[in-house]
Amino acid sequence: MRRAYSVETVRAAEAALLKRVPEGALMQRAAAGLAAACGDLLRRTGRVYGSRVLLLVGSGDNGGDALYAGARLARRGAGVRALLVSPDRAHAAGLAAFLAAGGRVADGPDGLGGLDLVVDGITGIGGRGGLREDALALLRAVTRSHSRTPVIAVDLPSGVEADSGEVHGEAVRADATVTFGTYKPGHLIDPAAEHAGALRLVDIGLGPELPEPPDLEALQYADVAALLPVPGAESDKYSRGVVGVVAGSERYPGAAVLAVSGALHGGAGAVRYVGPGADAVIARFPETLVHAGPPSKAGRVQAWVIGPGLGDGRWAEEAVADVLGADVPVLVDADGLRLLDPETVRTRTAATVLTPHAGEAAALLGVAREEVEAGRLAAVRELAARYRATVLLKGSTTLVAEARDTPVRVNPTGTGWLATAGSGDVLSGLTGSLLAAGLAPRDAASVGAYLHGLAARHGSDGAPVSAQDVAHGIPAAWRDVRAG
């Protein structure tokens, strides 16, 4: 599992560790890891000896890390130059070591010639509010003349927010980011994560100083495999989980089919469908148990999914109210999010999972969509707290938050192929099946998002993907996770 901590927590852990190690040891550990990563990248296209490296050096410790790493590369025969954002504030010891190793300070961004690598050490995890004008001018000049040169960021791409994943204005776009001690939220949450590229974590001995729990966590294969509900020899359809699906309308009958498809491919023991799309559902999935409604009369379920393609009107409103009155977990998506009563959600005794995209989240919060997209972490936390629910905020990095104080989960399997009509309906059915199987709401949402992303990759295989492809890819994703 990837775990991420806030800047404040990281700083406190570093302070505790500094009391136990020799002066300068942490920076040397970081510089060694950074230099090794730079060397690995350089060797992919050539070799370290004779390569041309440019350091963009700010005034903080990240600039010191870059200078010490540059010194190591220079001693290995690389031609390393440094552009100092604030020459009078550069890390003194790092600059001295850099010059002693044969590194050179460039006069400016012009006339640098060809480069094999740029190292971004302008700002680190303490940067706030975007890049200052002097740093921004330097970055623009280098980017303009060396747009194809690979970039490695030191700890975090300069210009992004470590704690929130927000990006204010222009920021470095790195091919890879080398971070130290632990991941930070900005490594995992868009839009900042999009700037980070491939992540490499360097162990500097910080682990024992970091508290429990982390601020964020991202499940990996082994974590998901441990949570997957696998039937035993004595399992029946009820022990595997019966999920009720209320979805679709005369205008959107396909939403019913896709939500049911997600539930069936997600391992539900049985699916009970309620809504006007019964004929379309039975035509595709004859094993589905259909009922005219209301949902409370449809029969036994262990979880409900409501909302995809539900539309407006009296029937839809009554169905949402009926389902929210049930004493089993309920997942609310799409049109159901518009029709729910906030106080009813807050006072439910059984679990509620809300699965909005950015636009729906903005409506639930009463803010502009752009505000949600720019501050996804703050938005998902606020939604969970305000509605006292588990919230799965869909997007380029899907986030899962609870009302209680547990780490926000970040899904690492997202892909642009999921930006297709109906894929959210599949996710709702899939997550509902996991709820019905007995997974806790946070686990069901996290595992559902993880499998959903893998399923899109299986369905697309590098080609355009439809929601049906995503649903059909779920069993293959399940097998991949179990196989490790």
From TrEMBL:
Catalytic activity of the protein: (6R)-NADHX = (6S)-NADHX; (6S)-NADPHX + ADP = AMP + phosphate + NADPH + H(+); (6R)-NADPHX = (6S)-NADPHX; (6S)-NADHX + ADP = AMP + phosphate + NADH + H(+)
Cofactor binding remark: Binds 1 potassium ion per subunit.
Start and end residues of each YjeF N-terminal domain: 10-212
Domain of life: Bacteria
Keywords: ATP-binding, Isomerase, Lyase, Metal-binding, Multifunctional enzyme, NAD, NADP, Nucleotide-binding, Potassium
UniProt-listed Enzyme Commission number(s): 4.2.1.136, 5.1.99.6
Residues of the YjeF C-terminal domain: 220-481
Alphabetical list of InterPro entries matching this protein: CARKD, Nnr, Ribokinase-like, YjeF_N_dom, YjeF_N_dom_sf
PROSITE patterns, sorted: YJEF_C_3 (PS51383), YJEF_N (PS51385)
Keyword Heme part of the UniProt annotation: no
Binding site for AMP: K394, G395, S396, T397, T398, G424
Pfam families: Carb_kinase (PF01256), YjeF_N (PF03853)
Binding site for K(+): N62, D120, S158
PANTHER family cross-referenced by the UniProt entry: ATP-DEPENDENT (S)-NAD(P)H-HYDRATE DEHYDRATASE, ATP-DEPENDENT (S)-NAD(P)H-HYDRATE DEHYDRATASE FAMILY MEMBER
Family per record: In the N-terminal section; belongs to the NnrE/AIBP family.
Self-association state and partner proteins as the record states: Homotetramer.
HAMAP family in alphabetical order: NADHX_dehydratase, NADHX_epimerase
Protein role: Bifunctional enzyme that catalyzes the epimerization of the S- and R-forms of NAD(P)HX and the dehydration of the S-form of NAD(P)HX at the expense of ADP, which is converted to AMP. This allows the repair of both epimers of NAD(P)HX, a damaged form of NAD(P)H that is a result of enzymatic or heat-dependent hydration. Catalyzes the dehydration of the S-form of NAD(P)HX at the expense of ADP, which is converted to AMP. Together with NAD(P)HX epimerase, which catalyzes the epimerization of the S- and R-forms, the enzyme allows the repair of both epimers of NAD(P)HX, a damaged form of NAD(P)H that is a result of enzymatic or heat-dependent hydration.
Name of the protein in question: Bifunctional NAD(P)H-hydrate repair enzyme
Species this protein is from: Streptomyces cyaneofuscatus
Lineage: Bacteria, Bacillati, Actinomycetota, Actinomycetes, Kitasatosporales
